[in-house]
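User: Fold both of these, please.

Assistant: Here is the first one.
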Amino acid sequence: MKVTEALQKGEQSLSFEFFPPKTPVQEANLFAALDKLQDFKPNFCSVTYGALGNTAARTFQWVKAIKEKYQITPVAHLTCIAASQQNVADQLAEFSAIGVDNILALRGDVPAGTVNFVPPVDGFSQARDLVAFIKRQKPKFCVGVAGHPEGHCQSPSLKQETEYLKEKIDAGSEYIITQLFFDNRYYFDFVDRCRKAGIKVPIIPGVMPITSVQQIKKMTGVCGATIPADLQAKLDKYENDKEATVKIGIEQALKQCQELLEADIPGIHFFVLNQSEPISKILAQLGNW
């Protein structure tokens, strides 16, 4: 099933994002997370793609496992970083061979210490170019892209970023999944900007329950998301208390989801971080799925 088909059912979709494990312990954790979260019957699950494409093989492996073992529609991430056109064409052929036709096309995070991103020879400089290439190679593939409610940290302005997002849609993107945010106002304002710019595709909010203070500091530093002052104060108070931090994260995400689901949104995409417990507790209280 294509992501767009799930979004056209008239019900708010549910989806999860995982990252490929690097160790046997991480692999066991991911199997455990999938075993538990599959009970919520997600419409699709996405698998991330590491910096410089260094998890490409694992991404393929887990996309295949999600499809064949768990019977869940998989979405494979693809990035421009360190990828030539031939690299991408080969990967698209691999996905096509196992019946995977959903791609999330991303520019990708520039490796730490890199000042100016230089695309590889015969590669792509922007996600819009990757989207256009995918649609030329595999016209029937369903392609999604990322959106940044608070603006990408490298964008000169929200106006220019919205214009660029429109270019990604015009290149063939069929839906948007947002980067994480902790104040729903940013999501609603983002949707409003997109609609005024002529972007009509579904815009799925991405929600991440906080489970580690250090981890969320690092992630927000990379993506440009902000943490509201009251939430930051709670996290600072319990920075060294893992259990309290997870509780705060669940409460925050639950509150966000309740407000979002009351609005006219296409669904919710959870950044799982390969941990099932926080998501399970949130979904159990929401009761929507």
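And the second sequence with its predicted structure:
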Amino acid sequence: MSLRDYGLAEHDLEKAVRIDPDVEYMLGDDQAYFCHPVRFPAVEFELIDTTALCVVIDAIRKRLGFPPMLEDGGDTEGWYRFYLGLNGYTESHVDASIMAVVENSDSEDNDECYEIALSDDEQRVIYDLLDRQCRLHYGKSCADLLEEARRAMEADT
């Protein structure tokens, strides 16, 4: 299921998907395996735990039998940690999902990781959002960050 399936339209994504400027992005690399391994640059961001993302993870967890973290009008801060990455492999350059980790909970799924799938259209919209946010917070475009990750990856080999 994608964000749209949880009621988030494309115009909602700008409020929902926001880089946490207080957490430094991480450069790295990853691999895909088909006929042979393909290594590619990657950049990971921690996202702000917006109400919209928290509601989606609550819905996923509730479907699996876990109680939601948010109560009506409750505070979102501190229950989940969200991550999203750029990559030099896919056409959109955005990971296929937003990762969420449950934290600070006495729930049985504390420290468990969940995924919010992103459709191809959502990935394209999110790339543009991330690009604007990267330019604002870091003074670099997504392409600049991926190039920086590529150089670091090549220096590492």
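Helices lie at 13-16, 51-63, 120-138, 142-155.
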